[in-house]
Write the structure tokens for this entry.
Amino acid sequence: MAIDRTHCQQLDAQDPLSGFKARFQPPQKHTIFLDANSMGAMPAAVPDRLASFCTDEWVELRRQGWNHTEWLDRPRQIGDAIAHLMGAGQGNVVVCDNTTVNLYKILTYAWQSRKSGSTILTEDGNFPTDLYVAQGLNHNHPDPPEIKVCASRDELMDSFNTDTAIVYLSHADYRSGECWNMADINHRAHAIDALTVWDLSHSTGAIPVDLTGDDADFAVGCGYKYLSAGPGGSAYLWVNPRHAENGWPTICGWMGHQDVFAFATEYEPLSGAGRHATGTPAVIANEIFSCAAQIWQEVDEKHLWAKHKALGDLTMELLEQECGSLGVTINTPREYKQRGGHIGFSHPGAGPVSEALLAAGVVGSFRRPNSLRFGLGPLYLSYEDIWEAVSRLRKILESGDWQDAKYQTVSV
Amino acid sequence: MAIDRTHCQQLDAQDPLSGFKARFQPPQKHTIFLDANSMGAMPAAVPDRLASFCTDEWVELRRQGWNHTEWLDRPRQIGDAIAHLMGAGQGNVVVCDNTTVNLYKILTYAWQSRKSGSTILTEDGNFPTDLYVAQGLNHNHPDPPEIKVCASRDELMDSFNTDTAIVYLSHADYRSGECWNMADINHRAHAIDALTVWDLSHSTGAIPVDLTGDDADFAVGCGYKYLSAGPGGSAYLWVNPRHAENGWPTICGWMGHQDVFAFATEYEPLSGAGRHATGTPAVIANEIFSCAAQIWQEVDEKHLWAKHKALGDLTMELLEQECGSLGVTINTPREYKQRGGHIGFSHPGAGPVSEALLAAGVVGSFRRPNSLRFGLGPLYLSYEDIWEAVSRLRKILESGDWQDAKYQTVSV
């Protein structure tokens, strides 16, 4: 039986997370944002928090803010608030720096911590900045790792060998949304004495991640996608407690010192993951992230993941039902356990279609050469939103509107 | 003839920068903030910029912000706006990351670029995080530099030799405010084929810095002190153009790639200083910094430095005139060219005095064991503010109020 709008409305009526939609500020027009894989929605509490931050903290306290506010506590506080979304223990997630800097710190630390082997194993589906970080290590480090960039998942699986020091992957592919089986990769890596470094940017806040249960070694992720930390917001890192004392952090800074305000001349690393915190925290960015963290703390991750799965299933079913005969092919695996946070699909005119969708108030994202992505933020998207978005897509494809000259200049 | 309040008011009446005071938001009570060396004042434009950022950019654009706003241009745009404060050319200053991460990137890059020698020469008056970064390099790097931390300026000057690879200094001492002669150090360093790395955190926006004219090699600095970037705001780095193509940056990330949105698999560094930009810029922090950058762009640096010098001279004269007989001794050198952004002075009860000053609405800062600092932000402090602050200090010392039990718990 075909899915219709009424069915979607019924799903919304039964949604245990529906109350969270009001915790995010809606856009003025009825734009449907399906770009949570790129930029998450804004918590409604942010403008007030910023106004109060400006007046009560920056203007009235100035340097006393370090003493009288939570500025210094945020990196760990926010880390603790999002830890349950990735199966991490309290105190093991630190919010700091951007994803690239964290990848660099953690990959270098993992390289220094390696047990055997001389190769970092990855795939070309890893996000470019992840690859650049590894290439930089190969290029700059006096005792450099080899970097093996596999062209396919099969090649990667066949490349595990005694020369493998680190397996370095994005949990979910930023283009196709295809997802690795983290437990299996960790298990295979450990069997050959290799360590694993995961980029969770396209996973945390959308799909189940269980770093502890799946026995990962290290992880890093982006704050501003599913986690709604805000544009350019702080990223995070996680260190398995068994590696917390492996050595000094890659970047030794005062926020990773065991006694920050002693202003000691000699560096002594803080115990645990906190040693990777480098310099002054990104206070304002963290105030914004803390608004999202407040929400995440209240979210039952099992409900979150179930809703995300249901949104993804619905998106795929509707894309096929409504647009399957109009040239749309789904790229993301059907199998739930192989899916990341977004649904990817292709169309021969994906670029112009993406532009026509923007004009129709549906914000997905385009990736060359011919794929589109709908990123699904479970806390603020309704099932009816998915119905509406796919309906607008169908109209564009049916009418051929996307072939209009004005949609041929495509933004990335 | 003794200086009085009327004299200070006359100086204010002649101040060519007096119009800038209104560009910063004043505190509600008449608190005098003398902590620009720790946290600069808030540009009055910030709250509106943030409100518009939240609604018009984050909520309404989401991921399209990358295409339709200046988010990606800010790191270079802000760098260009503050370049004249440090004698830097356009395009050579990049706003990114925090100071510690930038110190790490630049010191490591300098180490890879060294011409000869195996030692990083520094002094224990360098800020702790600067020292930790160097110690981390010594501890972690497979081809590590030796770190020589000199206990005095004389020892440092005597330690220049053929083994010196890098001279690594804070331009102005964070405690005493004593300043290095940058031209002289650069000259001596180059004479022995060493490179220089300067931390300008306590200089830029207060005292003359001329990286190009003084022939420095590298520099890094903090955004949230004199530059008013806001708590935890982005830091900056500068690379002398002759070193811009020395090699790959320490942290290779997508924002330092020559074609960011090509999503290429292979890293190719951007030309120039921009290659050091690592990952996603700290968008929200940069929006705030851009409010300050707008102001800095309008400021004639010669007026700025002249005002800062006059404020510093007045502070020292008044401290002596009003408090010299009450136990206050000035630590900062009298000679203008040896002074950084703040005036340091000591008193046997500096900690409790600092607390009593806070209660009286004067925010300086205390450093163990017995020194106080007044950081002077030339754009928003009047000469009369200095008079008023020193008057309040005199009252506290004369009355012995600072000996009250409630001031004995001292914050740092």
Summary: Residues 5-44+300-407 of chain B form a domain with the Aspartate Aminotransferase, domain 1 fold (CATH 3.90.1150.10). The radius of gyration of chain B is 22 Å. Chain B touches chain A through 90 residues (CB under 8 Å).
